[in-house]
Design goal:
The complex is a heterodimer of chains A (about 260) and B (about 260).
Chain A (H helix, E strand, L loop, with lengths): L1 H29 L7 H41 L5 H39 L2 H7 L4 H38 L5 H11 L2 H27 L4 H33 L4
Helix pairs in contact in A: 1-5, 1-7, 2-3, 2-5, 3-5, 3-6, 3-7, 3-8, 5-6, 5-7, 7-8
Chain B lengths: L5 E10 L2 E11 L4 E5 L6 H8 L7 E6 L2 E2 L5 H9 L1 E4 L11 H11 L5 H14 L15 H13 L5 E5 L7 H18 L2 E5 L3 H9 E4 L4 E4 L10 E7 L2 E7 H5 L4 H7 L1
Parallel strand pairs in B: 3-8, 3-11, 6-7, 7-8
Antiparallel strand pairs in B: 1-2, 1-4, 4-5, 9-10, 11-12
Helix pairs in contact in B: 3-4, 3-5, 4-5, 5-6
The chains are: A mainly alpha (about 260), B alpha/beta (about 260).
Chain lengths: ~260, ~260
């Protein structure tokens, strides 16, 4: 009984991996082939990119601020408060900026994509689309993939800058660091490798956010209740994958001697 | 002599351990109408999706105009689907598009018309289903019957030779049911479209069997009073995923089978 349950669960898991791989390979292939749905892609860029702007800037700003406050406590014990700009900049650009931005966008858009496509599946709109001669992979998945890949790195840059600004305000008004001290250490501490790593990760995270949302949406079953389940699952799976993939990208880059 | 428009040979399909179609076979000639009957969950809607290639059977052949479409990829199915149209149970209109955009969808996707002729064609087909006044509305503003009429318009704009209707009158009032039946008959009698109609309402089937569309009167008239010939109609009943009965309206009406009699009662 328990053995059969485990076997069933494993089979479902293997099938899900197989279907996700199929979705990933096909959507990447179709991204470079016509027909291209430019209007849908621009709409997704607006929804995902511009729509996420306020929360990303806000989260970035306060994360930078709290990072400066906490780091100050540690640095002051060594008398190295002058390094505050460096700590904030490195933490944000390498990890917190890309990961927090991706988590915010996953919470907002991975679930949004899953619920939108899931609703279309249960109301037979996706079947109608196929019956009318349109491949949902090209019409629904590819514009969301391109929209996320194009906007997430830009959102990350804005989140990084907003975070550094938050760190600066805390350093200036609370810690009494001068403007030059903060920005000079922040600027000088960042190497080309740091910035590259910080901007490389969002591309992987964007693929996760968009495709997990699309996958969960396209595999929705069980009516409106199923849409709710798909929405929650999309957000949870995307968030967990972002953190796990972040670890492996970092490990890989260290492994190949990128730093 | 041309072969059947649709032919299914020993089609079987299972979802996990549940058999939803078991060894289903039938053939439907060009211009003929097939009524698919059966209780809820007997596999009628699944059978429509199999005909359109939206679901792949585990076994058997699905021949559309003599061509087995089961091995076809999604891309290879596109030309086959261009000759077919389906009206889903609740219409399945795209919520994010207006009535105009819904109806124009296929022509736009296939770049079949410029903007001027597109509007003309959309208005023409909406006039055919008596929905031209709703051209600017969104699907959420339409009633159930209106949604289905727009769905019919969206499908017939590309002049399909085969129409599949999934419970087109389910849950509608008698007046709207008549409007939908008139549209089905109009397609059948004026454009000689091959039709497969899933229905729970036997009175709709008999209305279409015993009437033809009169262009003069713009409605259905009894077959006996019309000059044209009687439409060729077949009945197919599914029970527990299998074909339980198939035959013409005479065989269906005079069947002595107890289960068929339950439907006729």
């Amino acid at each position: 009984m328990i053995g059969a349950m485990i076997t069933g669960a494993l089979k479902r898991w293997v099938l899900a991996v197989q279907e996700f791989t199929y979705l990933l390979s096909n959507s990447l292939r179709y991204a470079f082939k016509s027909p291209r749905y430019l209007a849908d892609t621009l709409l997704q860029m607006d929804v995902i990119g511009f729509g996420s702007l306020p929360i990303v800037i806000l989260i970035g700003f306060f994360t930078g601020g709290v990072l400066a406050l906490q780091s100050y406590r540690t640095l002051s014990t060594f008398g190295e408060t002058g390094l505050l700009g460096k700590v904030v900049a490195l933490s944000l650009v390498l990890e917190l900026g890309p990961v927090l931005t991706a988590l915010m966008v996953a919470g907002r858009n991975s679930s949004g994509i899953a619920s939108e496509i899931g609703s279309m599946v249960v109301s037979e709109q996706v079947d109608a689309m196929r019956a009318l001669g349109t491949d949902p992979m090209r019409k629904l998945v590819v514009p969301r993939l391109i929209g996320t890949v194009a906007t997430l790195p830009l959102l990350t840059i804005l989140a990084d800058f907003s975070g550094m600004l938050g760190g600066y305000f805390v350093s200036y008004y609370t810690v009494r660091l001068t403007t030059e001290e903060y920005w000079t250490t922040a600027y000088q501490s960042l190497t080309f490798q740091d910035v590259t790593q910080g901007l490389l990760k969002p591309f992987f995270f964007a693929v996760i956010i968009s495709l997990v949302g699309c996958f969960q949406g396209l595999h929705t079953t069980g009516g409106t209740e199923g849409v709710g389940r798909a929405t929650t699952r999309a957000m949870v799976v995307a968030s967990v994958l972002i953190v796990v993939v972040d670890f492996f990208i970092t490990k890989f880059l260290i492994g190949i001697g990128f730093f | 002599m041309p072969g059947p428009a649709i032919e299914l040979r020993n089609v079987s399909l299972s979802f996990d351990a549940k058999r939803v179609l078991n060894n289903v076979s039938f053939a439907l000639g060009r211009g003929e109408t097939l009524f698919l009957l059966g209780v809820t969950g007997s596999g009628k809607s699944v059978l429509l999706k199999v005909m359109l290639g939206l679901l792949k059977p585990d076994d058997g052949q699905v021949l559309i105009d003599g061509q087995d479409v089961v091995p076809f990829s999604e891309e290879q199915l596109q030309p086959v689907r261009r000759r077919m149209g389906i009206v889903f149970q609740e219409g399945a209109l795209f919520d994010s598009l207006s009535v105009f955009e819904n109806v124009a969808y296929r022509l736009r996707e296939e770049h079949l018309a410029d903007d001027a002729s597109l509007e003309q064609q959309v208005r023409e087909v909406l006039r055919f289903v008596e929905m031209e006044a709703a051209i600017e509305k969104s699907p959420s503003e339409l009633s159930g019957g209106m949604r289905r009429r727009v769905a019919i318009a969206r499908t017939i704009i590309s002049n399909p030779a085969i129409m599949l209707y999934d419970s087109p009158t389910g849950g509608l009032d008698p007046v709207t049911c008549l409007t939908i039946n008139v549209l089905i008959a109009k397609m059948r009698d004026l454009q000689h479209v091959t039709s497969v109609v899933v229905t729970q309402r036997l009175q709709d089937a008999y209305e279409l069997v015993n009437s033809v569309y009169s262009q003069e009167k713009q409605t259905l008239v009894p077959v006996n009073g019309a000059s044209g010939s009687r439409p060729v109609t077949r009945f197919l009943m599914l029970r527990d995923a299998e074909v339980y009965f198939q035959g013409n309206e005479q065989e269906f009406t005079h069947s002595t089978d107890a289960y068929v009699q339950k439907f006729l009662a």
